[in-house]
Amino acid sequence: MSVIIRNNLPSADVLRDENIFVMRESNAKSQDIRPLKILVLNLMPTKSVTESQFLRKLSNSPLQAEIEFIHMVSHTSRNTDPGHMEQYYTTFGAVRHRKFDGLIITGAPVETLRFEDVDYWGELCELMRWSETNVFSTLHICWGAQAGLYFHYGVNKHSLPQKLSGVFAHELVNPKSPLFFGCDDRIMMPHSRFTEVRESEIRRVEALQVMAISDEAGVAIVKSSDNRRFFIFGHPEYDSDTLAKEYFRDQAAGLGTAVPRHYFPGDDPSNPPTVNWKANASLIYSNWLNYYVYQSTSFDIENIPARSNVND
Question: Is 196 a catalytic residue?
Answer without folding.
Answer: no
